[in-house]
Automatic annotation (TrEMBL):
<dbReference type="GO" id="GO:0003700">
    <property type="term" value="F:DNA-binding transcription factor activity"/>
</dbReference>
<dbReference type="InterPro" id="IPR036390">
    <property type="entry name" value="WH_DNA-bd_sf"/>
</dbReference>
<dbReference type="Pfam" id="PF03466">
    <property type="entry name" value="LysR_substrate"/>
</dbReference>
<dbReference type="InterPro" id="IPR005119">
    <property type="entry name" value="LysR_subst-bd"/>
</dbReference>
<dbReference type="InterPro" id="IPR000847">
    <property type="entry name" value="LysR_HTH_N"/>
</dbReference>
<dbReference type="GO" id="GO:0043565">
    <property type="term" value="F:sequence-specific DNA binding"/>
</dbReference>
<keyword id="KW-0804">Transcription</keyword>
<dbReference type="InterPro" id="IPR036388">
    <property type="entry name" value="WH-like_DNA-bd_sf"/>
</dbReference>
<keyword id="KW-0805">Transcription regulation</keyword>
<comment type="similarity">
    <text>Belongs to the LysR transcriptional regulatory family.</text>
</comment>
<keyword id="KW-0238">DNA-binding</keyword>
<dbReference type="InterPro" id="IPR058163">
    <property type="entry name" value="LysR-type_TF_proteobact-type"/>
</dbReference>
<feature type="domain" description="HTH lysR-type">
    <location>
        <begin position="6"/>
        <end position="63"/>
    </location>
</feature>
<protein>
    <submittedName>
        <fullName>LysR family transcriptional regulator, glycine cleavage system transcriptional activator</fullName>
    </submittedName>
</protein>
<dbReference type="GO" id="GO:0006351">
    <property type="term" value="P:DNA-templated transcription"/>
</dbReference>
<dbReference type="Pfam" id="PF00126">
    <property type="entry name" value="HTH_1"/>
</dbReference>
Length: 306
């Protein structure tokens, strides 16, 4: 069915005047004369056969119909402007990603040479939880912990993983770590974000030792790094430490795993859901995660999507 749309020039003129409630200021913004702008407004009111403004001498006010239409047109024109700039700049602008330190260092950076525009990626890491205030965080996309929804933001679950103990090869040999009960006498690295040692000992059928049995870090990356330096044992996320295990800097201990859950998700503004670079980055990173077998299970029917 063919769209029945009013003249675009008239809509653009109306939106500018509605925003400023001043014909002269709107005319300057659009580089038109006030008389040309007034003509466009009259043409739009004729198209709708209804008044969009109330005129009181030199003062303008929106009618109820005009106010409702103006709000929708401002949103549409903002989205139109954002989409147009995204397409125009896609071939040359940087793509700004904000990530947690552990994901960036152990997972993302080693794979960036496989991203088609990896040379234009600007990667920043956060001190704490990455900010999802896209008006202030200077990012196009955030790789956030877990998948907590945020109003106005698309939350796209990316990676699911279980946890198991890891240790440096040297410490394992020196301490003769052979069975789960041996961990009760070792230093354990704890994680402020989500410490799961109690769950792991329960899954292994063992009573948990008195906690803490070692230092507590603000995130799992620092705990894993400490284990890599031979300072003790950390509970690492399988999906994140695969490369470290392959390189032999850490070894896995035992088969017991804390049950998998979504550990990372992509977040970006709803208004930019169709941005070409966001879509390409999302397709690429999801493909990488799926190839390694760490894609999250589909959301249940009862849970709201992003």
């Amino acid at each position: 069915m063919a769209r029945k749309l009013p003249p675009f020039a008239a809509v653009r003129a109306f939106e500018a005047v509605a925003r400023h409630l001043n014909v002269k200021v709107a005319a300057e913004e659009l580089c038109l004369s006030p008389s040309a702008l007034s003509h466009q407004i009259r043409a739009l009111e004729a198209y709708f056969d209804t008044a969009l403004f109330e005129r009181h001498g030199n003062r303008l006010a929106l009618t109820l119909t005009g106010r409702a239409y103006a709000g929708k047109m401002t949103q549409l024109l903002d989205a139109f402007d954002e989409s147009t700039r995204a397409v125009r700049e896609a071939g040359r602008r940087p793509f700004r990603v904000l990530s947690t330190p552990g994901f960036a260092a152990r997972w993302l950076v080693p794979r960036l040479d496989r991203l088609s525009f990896g040379d234009r990626l600007r990667l920043r890491v956060s001190d704490g939880a990455p900010s999802l205030d896209f008006a202030a965080n200077e990012s196009d996309l955030v790789i956030q912990w877990a998948d907590e929804p945020t109003p106005g933001v698309v939350t796209d679950p990316l990676m699911s993983s279980g946890r198991y103990p890891v240790i440096s090869p040297e410490l394992r040999e020196r301490e003769q770590v052979r069975e789960p009960a041996d961990l009760a006498r070792l230093t354990l690295m704890h994680d402020e974000t989500m410490d799961a040692w109690g769950s792991w000992f329960a899954s292994a059928g063992l009573p948990a030792p008195a906690f803490p049995r070692g230092p507590t870090f603000p995130n799992c990356e620092l705990a894993t790094t400490a284990a890599e330096r031979g300072q003790g044992v950390a509970l690492a996320y399988d999906a994140v430490v695969q490369g470290t295990l392959r390189e032999g800097r850490l070894v896995r201990l035992f088969d017991t795993v804390v049950m998998p859950f979504v550990i990372y998700s992509l977040a970006y503004p709803e208004a930019r859901a169709e941005d070409p670079m966001i879509r390409e980055f999302s397709d690429w990173i999801h493909g990488e995660v799926e190839a390694e077998g760490f894609a999250p299970a589909p959301r249940s029917a009862g849970r709201a999507g992003p």
